[in-house]
Amino acid sequence: MTEPMRAEGRGPSAVTLLENELKRVETGARFRRTLRSTLVVLTAVAAVAVLAATLVFPVLRIYGTSMAPALNEGEVVVAIRTADARRGEPIAFYYGNKVLIKRCIGTAGDIIDMDEAGNVFRNGQLLDEPYLERKARGECDAEFPCQVPDGRIFVMGDQRETSIDSRNTLIGCIAPEQIIGRVALRIWPLDEIGAVS
């Protein structure tokens, strides 16, 4: 097959123009397919991330100083969704329309006591609380010693002078259905990433 003749000085032949146009159309179609599949994948990943964040690993931002120095204002943490609370671990829970983070001090049946100096006793044993900067009785209108009722959890913040927690009848002992999860991991700021203790 011979190439069509063209006059000297004139542009590319009609066949060359047609081939170039077909390549441009094919490239555009390939780009649109790639863009569409990328958007579908990104949407699916975002949906999975949102479901994981709400159903399995809630992401929470710290407001206030009731858990300092373990958790400071502005930090972002991840909780592991569970209704189980382990003594000594920080837990996130619903209180009205707020989310609070406090440390689990006692579970059902434990007898919690606190002296005037802020020393906390569980079942007659003085608690070792290395996460505290200083001990204090704080805002306390609960009667001590007290026994944690069945199906309840006794919680306290690490800043005992200012924290409103189970020592105050306003909050009292919390129910497992209020618990969002155990606060397990700090993800912000980046230089503080790590396990929360």
Could you please describe the fold and organization of this structure?
A hairpin with a 5-residue loop joins strand 10 and strand 11. The model has no long low-confidence stretch (mean pLDDT 86). The chain has 2 domains: 46 residues; 137 residues, Umud Fragment, subunit A, CATH 2.10.109. The N and C termini lie far apart (80 Å). The relative contact order is 0.16. By secondary structure, the protein is of the alpha+beta class.
Topology (elements, then pairings):
Layout: H1 14-56, E1 59-61, E2 76-81, E3 90-95, E4 98-107, E5 111-114, E6 120-122, E7 125-126, E8 146-147, E9 153-156, E10 179-188, E11 194-195
Antiparallel strand pairs: 1-2, 2-10, 3-4, 3-10, 4-9, 5-6, 5-8, 6-7, 10-11
Mean pLDDT: 86
Distance between the termini: 80 Å
For the record, the CATH architecture of the largest domain stands as Ribbon
Which class do the helix and strand fractions yield? alpha+beta
Main sheet: strands, sense, barrel: 7 strands, antiparallel
> What ranges have pLDDT less than 50 throughout 5 or more consecutive residues?
none
- Please work out how many helical segments DSSP would assign: 1
**CATH class categorisation of the largest domain:** Mainly Beta
Per CATH, the superfamily of the largest domain is: Umud Fragment, subunit A
* CATH topology category name of the largest domain: Umud Fragment, subunit A
Estimate the helix proportion, in percent: 10-25%
How many domains comprise the coordinates? 2
Order of helices and strands: HEEEEEEEEEEE
**From the alpha-carbon coordinates, what is the Rg to the nearest angstrom?**
31 Å
Per DSSP E runs of 2 or more residues, the count of β-strands stands at: 11
Bulk shape? rod-shaped
Strand content: 25-35%
